[in-house]
Q: What sequence folds into this?
C-alpha cells in the first residue's frame, strides 16, 4: 500500500476584541445503512413510499412484537468499521434510549451506548494536495432511525409517517479533531466518499441518508494543543451541538455563525450553556431548541429483548478480504502508476464510477493523456451540460479510441477536439469517422511542401520580413495549417517552413 | 430514603405516567425500598463474573436481509385515534 505525505492544515483563527480564538469541532454523522430491510424488522427501507406502507407491526411497536436483527446491517457496520481502519468489537450490545416523540412509537430507540460494534478508527480529511488532517473516530454504533413528522399540512395537527422508523443507522462519532468550518464540510465529504466506495450507505444527503450533528466550541490559541497532549477536555470551551445538518454548505455556515455567537458571549464576560441548537438556514443563525431539561435524561438500559451481538473474527476477516480499494489508496496508486498530479487523482477518484471509467480509458494508453482527456474534455463537458457520467454520450471505449488516434499521430490534438465533438453529438467509432470524413493528419511531406510553396509564392513581402525576423515563421505555419484544414502535422509544417525560408 | 418526592415526581414525568401529588410520598417510599434491596445485592462480590444475559445458552437470532413485511398500512393505522391520508394525525408538535 502506498501513502501520500501530507501536513496538517492550520486551524481557523477568528480575531476577537480580546485576542484570537480558535474553533474545535467534533461530529456525529448518522449514516443510513444501505440494506433492503430494516434493522429489526422485515419491512422495506425504500425511500419515498406511501406513508406508513413500509411499516411492520414491529416498527409500529405493537404489543408482543419482538425485534430480530438483520445480519446484513451488522455486516455493513463491520465493513464500514474496517474501511475506517477501526477496531471491530466481537461483542456488542443493544441499549434502550428512552424518550417520547410521536415518530418514535416504541418510546425508546434501540441503540448501542455501552458496547458499540465498532471502536476507534480514523478518516484522512484532504484539504488540498499535500495538506490533510487525520480525524480520529471514537466509535460507530448501530441504532434505529426514527419516523418523520410533517408539521405543515395542517394548522393544528402534526402528521406522522413511520416508513423510516427502524431503518438501520450507523452513528459515526469523531473526536474533536476538526479545526474549522471547511474542514468540517471536507470531513463529511470524505466520510461520504468512503461509505459510497464501501457500498454501506448511499450518502444521499437530500433524502436524509446522511445527517450530521455538529459539536462546536471555541478556545484560545494553545488550549487545543494542551488538550491534545493530555486528552483533558477542561482545556476546551463548553460545546453546543447543532442538530440534524444535511448540507455541506449549511454545516459550514452554521459553524461559522455558532463560533462567532460563542465568542461574542465570552468576550462580553458571559459563559456558554451546553445545549442543543438548531440551524435556521433562512436566517443563517442557530437557536436553542429550548427542549425541557428532562428530554436529555434518556435512562439508558440494556434492551431485554435482545441478546448480546457476538460475531466471529473469521467473519470479520472475510468481510475485510472483500473490501474494495478505498479512495486514499486509489488516489496514491493513480499518482504513482499514471504520473498524474494529486489534484487530478483526487478528481478521478471522487467516485468509484469516475475512477473505473478512467481506468478503462487509460488501459494500455498514456495515463497522463487519458487523465487530461477524461477530466478536461469529458468531465468538463458533462458538468457544463449537467449530465451524469452514467449517461455520458461518449463511452470509455470511444474516448480511448480518440486518444489512440492522437497517439498514433493519425490526427492532431486540435482535430481530436473536433472529433470529440462529433462523437459527443453523433456517436460512432472514432477511427471510422476520421477515415470517412478525411480528418487524417497530412504527414505526406509532398502535400505539405506544395501548400508551403503556395503560401510563400503568394506572400513575397512576408517572406522578406521573415528572413530578418525568424519569429515570423509562425505566421507561415498558421497559414499552412489553415490551408490544410488543420490536418497537416504541425511539426512537419514547422520543419518545412523553416527550411524553405532558409532559417536553419 | 434514596428517592425523595421530587425525584419520584420527575421519574413519573419522564415515563409520562400521571401520579397525583398525594400518592407521591408512598411511591417514593416504594421506589426507595427497591433501591435499598439493590444496595443489599451490591454487597455480593461479583468480581470476574460475566453478567448473565440469558438463562438458556443461545445466541442472538439473526435474519437475512429481505423484505418480508410491510404493505399493511390499514393494520398499522387501525388503532390510531386519528389518521389522515395514510398518516397518523397527532396534536401539533413544534420545536
A:
Amino acid at each position: 500500500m502506498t501513502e501520500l505525505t501530507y501536513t496538517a492544515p492550520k486551524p481557523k483563527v477568528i480575531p476577537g476584541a480580546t485576542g484570537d480564538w480558535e474553533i474545535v469541532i467534533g461530529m456525529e454523522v448518522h449514516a443510513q445503512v444501505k440494506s433492503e430491510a430494516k434493522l429489526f424488522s422485515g419491512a422495506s427501507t425504500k425511500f419515498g413510499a406511501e406513508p406508513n406502507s413500509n411499516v411492520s407491526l414491529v416498527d409500529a411497536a405493537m404489543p408482543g412484537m419482538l425485534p430480530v436483527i438483520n445480519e446484513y446491517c451488522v455486516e455493513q457496520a463491520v465493513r464500514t468499521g474496517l474501511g475506517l481502519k477501526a477496531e471491530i468489537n466481537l461483542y456488542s450490545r443493544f441499549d434502550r434510549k428512552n424518550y417520547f416523540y410521536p415518530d418514535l412509537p416504541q418510546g425508546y430507540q434501540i441503540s448501542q451506548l455501552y458496547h458499540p460494534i465498532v471502536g476507534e478508527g480514523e478518516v484522512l480529511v484532504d484539504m488540498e494536495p499535500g495538506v490533510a488532517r487525520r480525524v480520529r473516530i471514537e466509535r460507530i454504533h448501530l441504532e434505529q432511525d426514527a419516523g418523520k413528522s410533517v408539521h405543515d399540512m395542517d394548522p393544528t395537527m402534526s402528521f406522522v409517517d413511520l416508513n423510516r422508523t427502524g431503518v438501520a443507522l450507523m452513528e459515526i462519532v469523531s473526536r474533536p479533531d476538526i479545526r474549522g468550518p471547511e474542514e468540517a464540510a471536507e470531513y463529511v465529504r470524505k466520510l461520504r466518499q468512503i461509505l459510497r466506495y464501501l457500498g454501506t450507505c448511499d450518502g444521499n444527503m437530500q433524502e436524509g441518508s446522511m445527517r450530521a450533528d455538529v459539536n462546536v466550541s471555541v478556545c484560545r490559541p494553545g488550549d487545543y494543543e494542551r488538550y491534545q497532549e493530555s486528552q483533558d477536555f477542561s482545556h476546551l470551551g463548553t460545546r453546543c451541538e447543532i442538530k440534524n445538518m444535511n448540507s455541506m454548505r449549511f454545516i459550514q455556515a452554521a459553524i461559522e455563525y455558532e463560533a462567532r455567537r460563542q465568542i461574542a458571549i465570552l468576550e462580553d464576560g458571559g459563559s456558554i450553556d451546553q445545549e442543543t441548537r438548531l440551524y435556521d438556514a433562512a436566517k443563517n443563525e442557530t437557536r436553542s431548541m429550548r427542549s425541557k431539561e428532562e428530554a436529555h435524561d434518556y435512562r439508558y438500559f440494556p434492551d431485554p429483548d435482545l441478546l448480546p451481538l457476538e460475531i466471529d473474527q473469521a467473519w470479520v476477516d472475510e468481510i475485510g478480504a472483500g473490501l474494495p480499494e478505498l479512495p486514499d489508496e486509489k488516489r496514491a496508486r493513480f499518482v504513482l502508476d499514471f504520473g498524474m498530479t494529486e489534484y487530478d487523482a483526487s478528481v478521478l477518484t471522487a467516485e468509484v464510477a469516475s475512477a473505473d471509467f478512467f481506468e478503462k480509458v487509460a488501459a494500455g494508453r498514456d495515463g497522463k493523456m487519458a487523465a487530461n482527456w477524461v477530466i478536461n474534455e469529458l468531465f468538463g463537458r458533462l458538468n457544463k451540460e449537467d449530465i451524469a457520467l452514467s449517461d455520458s454520450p461518449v463511452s470509455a471505449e470511444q474516448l480511448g479510441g480518440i486518444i489512440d488516434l492522437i497517439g498514433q499521430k493519425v490526427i492532431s490534438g486540435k482535430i481530436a477536439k473536433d472529433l470529440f465533438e462529433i462523437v459527443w453529438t453523433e456517436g460512432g467509432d472514432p477511427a471510422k469517422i476520421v477515415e470517412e470524413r478525411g480528418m487524417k493528419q497530412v504527414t505526406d511531406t509532398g502535400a505539405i511542401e506544395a501548400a508551403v510553396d503556395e503560401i510563400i509564392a503568394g506572400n513575397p513581402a512576408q517572406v522578406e520580413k521573415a528572413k530578418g525576423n525568424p519569429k515570423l515563421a509562425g505566421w507561415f505555419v498558421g497559414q499552412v495549417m489553415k490551408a490544410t484544414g488543420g490536418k497537416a502535422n504541425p511539426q512537419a509544417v514547422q520543419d518545412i517552413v523553416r527550411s524553405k525560408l532558409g532559417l536553419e | 430514603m434514596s428517592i425523595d418526592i421530587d425525584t419520584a415526581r420527575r421519574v413519573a414525568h419522564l415515563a409520562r405516567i400521571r401520579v397525583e401529588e398525594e400518592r407521591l410520598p408512598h411511591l417514593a417510599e416504594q421506589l426507595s425500598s427497591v433501591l435499598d434491596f439493590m444496595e443489599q445485592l451490591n454487597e455480593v462480590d461479583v468480581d470476574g463474573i460475566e453478567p448473565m444475559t440469558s438463562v438458556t445458552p443461545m445466541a442472538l437470532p439473526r435474519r437475512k436481509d429481505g423484505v418480508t413485511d410491510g404493505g399493511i398500512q390499514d393494520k398499522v393505522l387501525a388503532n390510531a385515534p386519528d389518521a389522515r391520508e395514510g398518516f397518523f394525525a397527532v396534536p401539533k408538535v413544534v420545536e
Remarks:
- The mean pLDDT of chain A is 92.
- The longest helix of chain A spans residues 248-267.
- The CA atoms of residues 358 and 371 of chain A lie 7 Å apart.
- The radius of gyration of chain A is 30 Å.
